[in-house]
Design a protein that fits this description.
The complex is a heterodimer. By secondary structure, chain A is an alpha+beta fold. Chain A folds into 3 domains: about 30-85; about 140-240, D-maltodextrin-binding protein, MBP (Periplasmic binding protein-like II); about 295-535, MetI-like fold, CATH 1.10.3720.10. Helix content of chain A is about 55%, strand content about 10%. Chain A is built from 18 helices and 15 strands. Chain A has helices at about 1-10, 30-60, 60-80, 85-110, 125-135, 205-210, 215-220, 290-295, 300-335, 340-355, 355-365, 375-380, 390-420, 420-430, 435-460, 465-470, 490-500, 505-535, and strands at about 135-140, 145-150, 160-165, 170-175, 180-185, 190, 195-200, 205, 220-225, 230, 235-240, 245, 250-255, 260-265, 270. In chain A, strand 2 (about 145-150) and strand 3 form a beta hairpin. The longest helix of chain A is centred in the middle third of the chain and has 36 residues, at about 300-335. Chain A is extended, with a radius of gyration of 37 Å. Chain B is α+β, with helices and mostly antiparallel strands. Chain B has 2 domains: about 45-150 and about 305-375, Periplasmic binding protein-like II (D-Maltodextrin-Binding Protein, domain 2), CATH 3.40.190; about 150-305 and about 380-420, Periplasmic binding protein-like II (D-Maltodextrin-Binding Protein, domain 2), CATH 3.40.190. Chain B is built from 17 helices and 14 strands. Chain B has helices spanning about 1-40, 50-70, 80-90, 105-110, 120-125, 130-135, 165-180, 195-205, 230-240, 260-265, 280-285, 320-330, 335-345, 350-355, 360-375, 385-400, 405-420; strands at about 45-50, 70-75, 95-100, 115, 135, 140, 145-150, 150-155, 210-215, 220-225, 270-275, 290, 305-315, 375. In chain B, the strands form 4 sheets. In chain B, strands 1, 2, 3, 4, 7, 13 and 14 form a 7-stranded mixed sheet that branches. Chain B has a 3-stranded antiparallel sheet with strand order 11-8-12. Chain B has a two-stranded antiparallel sheet with strand order 5-6. In chain B, a hairpin with a 5-residue loop joins strand 9 (about 210-215) and strand 10 (about 220-225). Chain B is globular. Chain B starts with a helix and ends with a helix. The chains are: A alpha+beta, B alpha+beta. At the A-B interface, helix 2, helix 5, strand 1, helix 6 and helix 7 of A face helix 1, helix 3, helix 4, helix 12 and helix 16 of B.
């Protein structure tokens, strides 16, 4: 009996269906519409990849091409395979995270180890080319020729020839790569401005043809015994010689006229002479940890760094605390159902949230104007808001309160409504005062829900560039370090260093950015660890 | 159901193939279109600032392009042109020609962004001597100048018929007018909350101060900083006497954006500004005259800064041949200079152009005369960039009434530290 049961059971189980190799459900899709959308999106991705790959191929940028191919292949594999379901959700966010967060962070970190900035932007070759190029002087006593660009034979492929006319002597020459050759006046035709219009054996180029041969022309020069003749535009040529030349044997620049030598200083990216004076053009070099040690050891930088760090923390924490306090208060008040006109109040409070933040910062800045500002006019005072540190800090925090409390009001309302009313009612029945009930029941539950938002708000305000730069610009400025104002936070100071008037110092600014990143990252990690502790109360 | 699905799949497959092919075609077109730039057509890309001057440059550039069969594109960059140009140059996307102030030259040369220009003797002689000096750096000429501006004293001739002989004279007349209720401010000199060393320079030099010492062969010596020296402190002591705690002629609430309205509303009889105000002043019916900024009594001559706008050839441009031709042969003609002057009333740098406007714009010629007599070319060395911010803030502090000695020596120390 058992045997036939087993055999029946064996025949009753339906045979395993093979998974379809193409079409529906082959890659996990379960509806025709989904399949169409997936194919359309993947087609767009492929189209973008092809569009991006062609210029990379033309410029021979193999690394970029490899990245495009790999990312496209990865996307196709993940979305066309039936299994990789978690990856299907995570891959777009991860890709954007890598592109917009991780790559810029890595690039900034690598810049912090260099002296990238004004006079140190290019490579050593660029600097040498610039030094030699800017040292070309006209050989004294030589004429300024009137030039006619020509070729020997075909305009597109023939050798370049300069047909020159000396305006003083009216003598014409043909300048080739072998030197100057006089042209007899009867053979050629010269225009009224001195330009050679026709010459036997040579084809005079017009602007279009000359422009097509621009690269050959820029590399062409007529050698003479004291230098070379080069063109200046389409109709002038002069004999010049570069006074400064690079000598690879001593790794230095030599000046032919004065005999001075500037030796390459590869640790600073400059050419320096024996007296320590450097040439203007330098190059970008790796300086190791110098930028970081400068921030920590340079007296002026260090004094201002600490001061700004303290205000930075105070500003971020202060903003979060005051906006949360006011937002929570307003949320508590408007949570009462008995209050009439709640909808109107809510709309009025949310309204500033719809205004563009940058414009609001500028409006507030003008309201704080000492002579013409709204605040001074209303209060009848003549306070110089941004003249003293305390009033400037108060002004900035006031603006932050006005701009930020409505966001906190929104999230607090949501969180308050998610707390069951039974809990507070039970507390009331037990005889607890409303403030006690709030402190011990409502508030901890709120924090569980809102802690991540508060941490995020802190991290955002730690680097809130607009709040400081647009409102006070960092004022007031102490006279001993005009770069670092008393209401400057680290990011506005970094911005001034990188893009301010005193020359761009991207390496130093990148180093300070790395410090800021480390500070915010450490605080965020610690805070998120602690919020797990809050979860346990529940 | 299965047949419908097959049709749908076929249709979508067709669409995919079409998309990919069109992307191929588009990509190919893109590269060949890009290749066209350096190919057969002649192109020239010019960057210049915004405003009426920029619009005029656009028209002139396109006219030259049409005449010579070159595709000229003029892009107006109203803000941060210098920074954008250096960044673009470094990224390999530089324009061919860029128009800018002469004090950019030091920074542009140290970043290898512009090429020197060889000027013929005739061309050189056609320009004002100071304009050529301004575009010369380390012995090389870098740009073709087209404007040469400096500040002067604007005077309402109804309220103050005579030009003041000195600052003290100006302040005395201003106070009289204020006491008589005809004006509310003595002088409209822009200071602002962060100071303005450019406009205060005539008073600073008249009081004995200087920015950088001069080299024997011309040009400024970055090692000889004048800010922080006793001469600069003495100059600022005189300026403090005119400030908010002194005569009240200098105020931080007066800044670049309100001096014109103060002058045209007759709230002040005197304004210190530049020829860029002529366009707006023409629209009012104000009776005014210009004269050089007066000096302190018994002091050194008052030397306003001269700023020159010039056209430069970018080192990393794609079409240097045409750029050199445009800058040296077209931009140096009087017709171009006059066209630019008509659009925006800056002092032309070409002597011929200045001659031609003598009859129609005598006030502009007066500005040029003032500049030629006692103007000081604004330093174009890169070290000058480190001076503006600290010195401006120190000036604002001194005008507010703080001690000149401590403010100016602190500013001097801060500048020295950033120059290291």
């Amino acid at each position: 009996m058992a045997k036939s049961e087993v055999r029946e059971k064996a025949t009753l189980t339906p045979p395993e269906k093979k998974p379809p190799r193409f079409g529906m459900e082959a890659d996990g899709t379960s509806s025709p519409a989904g399949l169409i959308i997936k194919i359309a999106v993947l087609a767009m991705v492929l189209g973008i990849a092809v569009w991006a790959a062609l210029p990379l191929l033309a410029d021979q940028r193999w690394v970029g091409l490899a990245i495009v191919v790999l990312v496209t292949a990865l996307l196709f594999y993940i979305y066309l395979s039936p299994r990789r379901v978690p990856a299907k959700y995570l891959i777009p966010g991860t890709l954007f995270l890598i592109v917009f967060q991780i790559v810029p962070v890595l690039y900034t970190m690598s810049t912090a180890f260099t002296n990238f900035g004004d006079a140190h932007r290019g490579s050593k070759q660029d600097a040498i080319a610039a030094i030699e190029g800017t040292s070309v002087q006209q050989v004294p006593g030589t004429p300024e020729y009137v030039l006619s660009l020509a070729t020997k034979g075909d305009p597109t492929t023939g050798d370049i020839v300069f047909l020159l006319t000396d305006p003083a002597t009216k003598q014409s020459f043909a300048g080739t790569s072998e030197g100057l050759e006089e042209l007899a006046a009867d053979d050629i035709q010269v225009g009224p401005d001195g330009k050679v219009v026709e010459a036997p054996g040579y084809t005079v180029l017009n602007i279009g043809q000359a422009s097509a041969r621009a690269e050959d022309i820029s590399q062409f020069s007529v050698p003479t015994d004291r230098g070379a003749i080069k063109n200046q535009g389409l109709s002038r040529a002069f004999e010049g010689t570069p006074l400064r030349a690079y000598d690879a044997s001593c790794d230095c620049i030599k000046d032919a006229e004065s005999g001075q030598t500037w030796t390459a200083d590869d640790s600073n990216g400059l050419f320096v002479d024996s007296k320590g004076e450097a040439l203007a053009q330098g190059w970008k070099v790796n300086v190791g940890f110098r930028n970081f040690t400068d921030v920590l050891s340079d007296q002026t930088l260090r004094a201002s760094f600490l001061k700004m760090l303290v205000w930075n923390f105070g500003f971020a924490i202060g903003t979060v605390v005051i906006t949360f306090a006011l937002g929570l208060l307003v949320a508590l008040v408007l949570n009462k159902e008995e209050l009439k006109g709640r909808r109107i109040y809510r709309s009025l409070i949310i309204l500033p949230y719809a205004m563009p933040v940058v414009a609001m910062y500028l409006v507030w800045r003008d309201m704080f104007n000492t002579d013409f500002g709204l605040l001074n006019r209303l209060l009848g005072t003549h306070i110089n808001w941004f003249g003293t540190t305390a009033s400037a800090m108060f002004a900035i925090l006031l603006v932050q309160l006005w701009l930020g409390y409505n966001y906190m009001f929104l999230v607090c309302t949501g969180a308050l409504q998610s707390i069951s009313a039974d809990l507070t009612e039970a507390a009331q029945v037990d005889g607890a005062k409303p403030s006690y009930a709030f402190r011990t029941i409502t508030f901890p539950l709120l924090l569980v829900a809102l802690a991540p938002l508060l941490i995020a708000s802190f991290a955002f305000n730690f680097n809130n560039f607009n709040a400081i730069y647009l409102v006070s610009q960092g004022a007031p400025f102490p006279p001993d370090n005009p770069q670092a104002g008393n209401t400057d936070i680290l990011i506005t100071y970094t911005y001034r260093l990188a893009f301010g008037g005193a020359g761009a110092q991207y390496g130093l600014a990148a180093a300070i950015s790395v410090f800021i990143f480390l500070i915010v990252a450490v605080i965020s990690i610690l805070s998120f660890r602690r919020t797990h502790a809050l979860e346990e109360i529940n | 159901m299965k047949r419908k699905l097959r049709i749908v799949r076929a249709a979508v497959l067709l669409a995919v193939v079409a998309l990919v092919l069109s992307a191929c075609g588009g990509g190919g077109g893109q590269t060949s279109g890009g290749g066209d730039q350096t190919g057969s057509g002649a192109h020239l890309l010019i960057w210049t600032g915004g405003g009426p001057g920029g619009e005029a440059t656009k028209k002139l550039g396109e006219a030259w392009g049409k005449e010579n069969g070159v595709n000229v594109a003029v892009q107006l960059v109203p803000e941060n042109l210098q920074t954008q140009f250096v960044t673009a140059s470094q990224a390999g996307k530089a324009p061919d020609v860029v128009m800018g102030a002469h004090d950019w030259i030091g920074n542009l040369v140290q970043n290898g962004a512009i090429d020197p220009i060889q000027m013929t003797e005739d061309t050189r002689a056609a320009y004002e001597k100071l304009a050529i000096e301004a575009v010369t750096f380390n012995g090389q000429t870098y740009g073709v100048p087209f404007t040469m501006n400096n500040i002067v004293l604007f005077r309402n001739t109804d309220l103050a018929p005579e030009a003041p002989s000195s600052i003290e004279d100006l302040v005395a007349t201003g106070k009289q007018l204020k006491a008589a209720g005809k004006t509310s401010e003595i002088l409209a000199l822009p200071v602002g909350p962060t100071g303005d060393p450019y406009h205060i320079n005539p008073l600073y030099t008249s009081g004995g101060g200087y920015m950088f010492g001069q080299q024997p062969e011309g040009g400024y010596n970055p090692k000889d900083l004048g800010v922080g020296k006793p001469s600069s402190v003495q100059a600022y002591e005189k300026i403090a006497a005119l400030g908010e705690k002194g005569e009240g002629a200098l105020k931080r609430s007066i800044a670049g954006d309100n001096i014109l309205s103060l002058f045209t509303a007759k709230k002040t009889a005197y304004m210190i500004s530049g020829p860029w105000q002529f366009a707006d002043l023409k629209k009012t019916k104000l009776h005014y005259d210009v004269s050089p900024v007066p000096a302190f009594e018994g002091g050194k001559p008052a030397r306003p800064f001269i700023t020159v706008d010039a056209a430069y050839v970018a080192s990393k441009g794609q079409n240097k041949l045409l750029a050199q031709e445009f800058v040296t042969n077209y931009w140096s003609t009087p017709e171009v200079n006059l066209a630019l002057f008509k659009a925006s009333p800056n002092v032309p740098a070409l002597k011929a152009a200045l001659e031609q406007i003598k009859a129609s714009d005598p006030l502009v010629v007066k500005v040029a005369d003032a500049g030629r007599k006692s103007g000081q070319i604004m330093p174009s060395i890169p070290e000058m960039a480190a001076v503006w911010d600290p010195l401006g803030k120190a000036e604002a502090a001194v005008v507010a009434g703080s001690d000149p000695a401590s403010s100016i020596s602190a500013a001097g120390k801060a500048i020295q530290a950033s120059l290291k």
